[in-house]
Protein 1
Amino acid sequence: MDFFKRYGAIGGNQPQSPADTIQRMADRAETSTLLEDKRAAVLGLKGLSREYRVDVGEAALGALLKVLKEDSEDQNLLKAVLETLNNLCVRESPRGEASEASAVQADLAADRFSQAILRDSDDVISTFLGLLGDADFYIRYYTVQLLGTLHTCSGDELQKRVLVSPTGVGRLVDLLSDQRDIIRNEGIQLLIAMTKSNADIQKIVAFENAFDRLLGIVDEEGGVRGNIIVQDCLQLLHNLLNYNVSNQNFFRETSGIQRLPALLITDPSQTAAGRSGHPMSDADEEDPEWTKQHALNMLVVLDIIRMLIQPGNTNTQSNQTAMQQCGIIPPLLQLALAYEAPSSVRSQALYAIGDVIRAHQANQNLFQRILITAATDDDTINPGTRAIPEPAIVIVIRLSVGKRPAAVSANEYYIVRAAAAHLVQAYVGSNADAQLALAATLTPPGDINTISESEQHQSAGSLIVSVLLDWREACREDVWRVWYAALLLSTILRDHGECKEQALKITLGDTSRGEEPLPLINELMSQARQATQHGADARVSVALLTLMSVWLSNFPKGVSVFLEESANISFIVEQISGSTGINALVQGVSAFLLGLVYQFDIDPETPMTRESLYPILSKRVGADQLLIRVQRLRDSKEFQYAVGLAAGTYSNAFGGAPAEVFFDGVFTELFKQHYESFRLAIRLGPNEALANPSYAYLQGSMTGYASSAASGSAPGTPLVAGASTISRSASPAGGSSAAGGLGGMLAPTLTDRVSAEPTVAKAEYDALNAKFAEQTNEVSELRHALESSAAAYSALASAPQQHDRVDSAQLDQERSQLARVEAERDEHAKEVLNLRAQLEEVQKQLDISQLSGQQPMPDSDTATRVSELEQQMTALRLDNEKRETDWQSRCDELQKKLASAEKQVVKAAAAVRSTNKKKEQQQTADLEAMQADVKAKDELIAQLTAEVGELSKKAEQLDQMDELKERLANLEKEQEDLLVYLADQDQRAKENRAKLRKYGEDIPPSDDEGGDDDDE
Amino acid sequence: MSSYAYLFKYIIIGDTGVGKSCLLLQFTDNRFLPSHDLTIGVEFGARMVSVDNKDIKLQIWDTAGQESFRSITRSYYRGAVGALLVYDITRRDTFDHLATWLADARKHSNANTTIMLIGNKCDLEAKRSVSREEGEEFASKNGLYFIETSAKTSINVEEAFVQTAKDIYEKIQMGVFDLSGESGGVKLGPSQPGISSMPNMSQANGYSCC
């Protein structure tokens, strides 16, 4: 109370209430002209603001805000004001949690003052945002703190205010670059709060390069092993991307995805080992570093990854590709297999891999090729056996159905099994090849009772089969092993006839010891029977029976094998008709299975025809009874839960094993697809099938399916039409009449072709001629371009004063390019000559065939004309050759002159001017284009040459006179063209000379100048 | 993945319904949607262009034209190096508002920001109510680039974006921008050894692929 006395003394020795004193100080803060008085008053208010929050706030808030706006130069004053405001607005307890009346009062006041500040008519918020740029530590710090306080009170209001300021969000993001950790961390907190749900702020924060800055901080703070700041940064990153497609695009476009794999790598030494191909070879080394913080950080990273590749999003495909390309799978696999890591992390890593490859063929294929040497969760295995690399998919399957680490409970490990199964399904989904590859590994384990031994080196398929067969042993540890084994086998078989067939071939029993081979399908049924009779966990029976349903649907051959074992039918009938002590779910699945068996019992070799099954179905069980059982299954909460799970309604990522899990998505999907036809089918008598059109269709489709499966085609083509196509394509192998028909069909076409041959040759010949003309044209064009470029050069050279300085290096380069172009042109000219020679040859051959033709000799006129033409052509060719060489020498001359001009230019030029450069670039581009042209034409020439060769052969066969005449006419035309071309060339040469003269070069008149007309 | 020499940030501004989002969509996806939803706030798009044989990544923020979003969209001015100011040649009011838009852009953006004035919907010649000359005049009076485009037929869309990039590129060559800053709107690509070197002539290795 000294304080009041002191102020009281100032006021004149009378005792005062705190309220009076506060009022006095508020007045002084507002009206004092002396800065010292003001400062003293504000400091006084600050001192009282905690204890007398309401009084100070009510008396002085306006004054404080005024000081803030008017006296912003005085830093000490500013600090005190900011601190006081923060004291006034900060809440004692989170909203709605205050227990004491005084705390409630205080919080109400805090809210009131916050509102007053936020609604300040002079927009004091923008003043705060400005202060965020202040260099002083405390001013910045108190300002961020105050904004944080205001956000707790009224986030929406503050966000609106910040958005009004065009630089507001930018200033907040700038806090991330503050060198002082305390301010930076406060800034992160504030941004996390502000980006939780405001998409506008999310986008502006991203626009201000927050991705870069945040990932930079994560790196600085030691990556994902770092402290809570790392988690905060990742959380902010998560906020920016969540539900924000625009930011997700931006993240990908700024190579954000490429930076994710580095976040997953937990230990640099592990990555080094990973690169050498033994990522987990040092598995005995316990990782003590999996702290809670580390796990939390990692879970946020994994969450970010999965968020970017949610199934069905427009961006998912490109994000999946980007992720795969930047190598995200190996570190994810390492995490998944790190048995010392928390189950939640392992599970999320597996889900993430699944999401990366799901419905993405390239990624699935790449995943297929991954080999790893991994430790198992079962650390009792002799370390010496670990060295063999295995496909990643086998290891993932082992995670799903294998033993769990001793330290982890079955319930906790469930999430790892579920995630591994999710990954297998993502790998197999819409990937028939992968399905088949896995089915091919379905082999009986060497000894049925050996899963306890080494599950280490079993193939994927045999591992699954052995867990199913030895369910008692597996269940002792964990019923989920059996349940997931059944799910995975369903996944491998579903909708894939060939896979179903493959699995059907598996038999058990040692034939060498005289045992009867028992098909796997019946062995599994026998296990289901035993599990039910011995009162094992109902999940075992349910899992095995749902597996049967998936296997036998659309698979008459399987049904036939199933029916070979009479105990199978009696077992399921028993389950359906029993009334007490039978699990309703087992009952329901049994009913569904019986219906399927009846529906698909159409294999011609079935041991039990539909006729014999029908009485069982209709009399012993009764179709109504059967349907009721199935409906009850459909309506059960367990079934509905599985439907919801498949649709992604619930996430079982963290919760351990839910009690409701009995069914899986593969079965519920089959059930839904099949339910309608199923209801129809079980009402039909054994021979009614064909009477009902929809059923006939169904049967047809089944036959189609069977044959498509038999001929090895992909699944998913079970159509009647498909079946007939296949039978046709298959029949030629058998040498049946269909093949003959095919031959008959081909024969006339061939004959037609042969008879049409001469016409074709003629047409080709014409085309060749046309091409040749075109070629010649192009050559002249090219020449023209060269010319003009040379002219441009000389212009450049002769007018250095106009263009000032020229970059000599560039000139050199261009000159060499010119030389190259010219060389290429020369080559080109040669080939033109070559072509011409070939043309001549063709002509000769034509003459020969003309002579040897059976028709009467052509009239002498034509013959004379031909020889005349030939002579002319030779003359022309020689002339052309001469011109070419002539032109070449002139070109050389020109170049020499150019070189000397260049030298002059270089001497004259001291530096480079940018305007000049543009022109040069243009020329370079032109040169480039010309070069491309030359190359393209080279190819054309090669092609033409080949065609000429072919054509000349054909020409020998031509024997019809009128055709020859036509050819003659063509030749004449061609000749004319050549003449025109030559005239053209001369003209151009003349022009060129003229141009050169214009540039001041002394060129003597050529001897043929003015005498061009004499050429013919 | 995609490396680039420079990264430019653009914004597209202008009245609502002038076709800003359609311009962006045409530029990035070569698509046109006749009935595009109103943009809420700001949307992002990106594409690579080539200027002077250099790959330049354009990050484009397409803003909402409605008045109610104006304060939000202003936050993007400061960080952008190119601004496409769009009006609709069939709606005079959108042309009349250009002065306001321009004042806003000048006030909040970097002084070096290149502004391209775009008269969009030039395929609707019959409905034209702002002549090309008027657009040109406004642009030259205010020192802007000018082009008429059609997001529907894609006429000049490419040119509008590329011409802006060319101008920015030239400004870089002249040393107008500070490339080290965080919020300049121009950034160097990830693996760019030096910037001051000449627009290089070492295209020789480009021949092999033709």
Note: Chain B has six helices and seven strands.
Protein 2
Amino acid sequence: MPRPAPLIEMRGISKSFGAVKANEAVDLSVAPGEILGLLGENGAGKTTLMNVLFGAYAPDAGEILVQGRPVTINSSADALAAGIGMVHQHFHLAPRLSVLENLLIGIPGKSGRIDRAGGLARLGEIGRQHGLTLDPDLPVSALSVGEQQRLEIVKALFRGARLLILDEPTAVLAPTEVDGLFSALRSMAAQGLGIIFISHKLNEVRALTHRCVVLRHGRVAGRVDAPASTTSSEMARLMCGHEIVPPARGPSTPGAAVLTLDDISTSRHSGMALRDVSLAVRAGEILGIAGVSGNGQRALAEVISGVRAPDAGRMTIAGKIVSRFSPREVQALGLGRIPEDRMTTGLVTNLPLADSMVLPRIGTDAFSRNGLLRPDAIRAFAEAQIKAYDIRCPGPMTRAGALSGGNLQKALLARELAFDPKVLIVSQPTRGLDIGAARFIHEKFLDMRAKGCGIIVLGEDLEELLMLCDRIAVMYEGRIVGTLASADATIARLGLMMTGAEGHG
Amino acid sequence: MFRLEARTNTPAWFNLALPLLAIGAALVLCSGLIALAGAGVIEAYGVMFSASLGDSYAITETLVRATPMIFTGLAVAVAFRAKFWNIGAEGQLLAGAVASCAVGAIPMPGPLAILLMAVAGAAAGAAVALVPATLRVKFRVDDVVSSLLLNSVIFYALMALIEGPWKDSFSGYPISPPIEDSANFPVLLEGTRLHLGVVAAFLAAPVIWFLVMRTTLGFRIRIIGENPEAARYGGIHVERVLISTALLSGALAGLAGVGEVGGVHFQVMSDISPGYGYSGIVVAMLARLNPLGVVPAALFLAAVMTGAEAMSRATGVPAFLSDVIQGTALLAMLVALLFTAYRIRRVGTAK
């Protein structure tokens, strides 16, 4: 089938940052009605390429054509004028303003007044066309993450985008929300819009896109014309340049319980409260906690990490009762923690990487004596971990924020595992990571399991949980509604329990 | 057409180049004002330079001027590292001056008096800084506003003291009684005002640098300033570190007041500080919050201040120019800081 003339064409795009070639001679085009998958590992140049298209960076070489005409895009305003809309990973919304007000930001009304009626009409129209309905008067702060993303998409369409770029849109969504997003994207494509879909998740790319471009080290490593009939492992090979084999979880003989929670309850401080949560993780075992986010996982992680004391219940780590619930106490008892949000609760992006790597243990003899830092020990530790975990960065004094997500996750893993924790609590361990980095993280967890560490993994990605965990408990509305051995668990059964449909399993 | 692009790293030489650039820009911008006042720019800056750095006496005067600003600059640099927005160094300085003057008026051997004056002044400054820090930790009160407004409270309390119960009965002016002669700081160089406090200030800078960069407290100060959430999860008591920072910052600002009383004025009057607390903010920003950088930054501002008076006498340009240079240098530095995060790139204009 001959493809219609491209909506957008990028020819020979190159962009360097210092010595790093982020993009090199990249060609890419999207036809009307086409959903193009843009694949690549972290650091392969996907985001840079899209930032060039959206006007955030000027390319060093190459040209951009919109409907056959060369254009210069110097700002997001230029991009919007050319009919290009982008939904970033981090949303650009004003939380205190309503849905409608967010839509109308930057849109001149008639004689200085806001065209509320016109905005409402357009919002309703877009909603009906693609199933993207939103309450116009709700403040953005009251919207779920999925609804905020919907608003970003509507915003782009509202401004007349004919090409929509979505940067890892499913990373923030629950499995049920992904279906809704996909049907909206298909409906938009059916009406002649072009879509660029950036993702790491190969099964999603295969289900949704018509064609794929795979980037590696800034260059086009391959093009896939029929993603649906191409296997995930073939695509993975294009992305990584080599075969990726999922790690196998061998049998293990769990030992004594290293973490127990008995009837832990919390007040409704922020988000869902915990109600009578009891669970136990044994040495050499990986316990998964599945659940749609917002069902108490955050409170559970906060209690176990020692940043929030429960109102009732008892917790033990390595057989000792946790009494004060401070991060220092649980850490001293042998708890390691890989946080859900690397940037906010894990690392200090503006300071050298080494500082983040020693942060939780700065007061211990390893890094300080009598209140004086041991700079050489800190540096040596960071350098050793950078080497051991193959963290890609110029050195321990690099600003942590300059590293990619996968490398930051490795750094967090390194800082916790270096001290042989008895229990490890992990939230969404591979969110936003590419296959290679995710694979590395999974292997490390299995290594720790073999060494007798008890691991508790909170997550929404059921495939990942089934692969990693020995047992999976399901959380719903602040309770554990059931626990299954992985051998008995299926995605369908877990999915049902996550909606609260099944009682104690 | 030019545009800004995010930088991935900041070269080390920026730390030196940016403040110099900002100072240069401020001097160029202010030369317009000098010309407007009807004086020769070269001549005016020439007088300024010779009166502040031209001979050994001028240099000692600049050093004496720089001393309180080194202390307030360190106070602000330490506080800002932790993102404790202490705009109250002025009030803390005044509190330090009052406390040290009260102690200095008690007859006792000189060395003991000087030691106790320093302790009292530092404690008074710390006590004042504790107020906005506690309000922030306990009630989430904005520390910029509370620390700034507290300056007026302290200033008028000081006025009430020296207009009323503490007024010097001999002079009849609204000034406090002088401290004991034995409590006067020793002069280091005969015929100048170079006093013991100057040496203390120059020693304080490396001590504070060591504290910020090489101790666990300093580490925690830096971490809570950049990411309090990560600090909390990492087992740092954020509130406790913030209070410690405030106490340290206030104590340093209090020491600025001690130096002025013990080494320069020997009593407290309403104009004991021409805004050294606020200048501390300019100093700290020019130093990019590096305690070692505070010394040259304070010396620059001190040179401008001493030079401006001589320039005013010689050329008729109002001495207020020194305030304008200070303000312009701060604004220029804030603009220059943009270049640590962004680079300017030339792009082709649209066809």
Note: Chain B touches chain A at residues 1, 3, 5, 8-9, 213-220, 222-223, 226-227, 229-236, 345, 347-351 (CB under 8 Å).
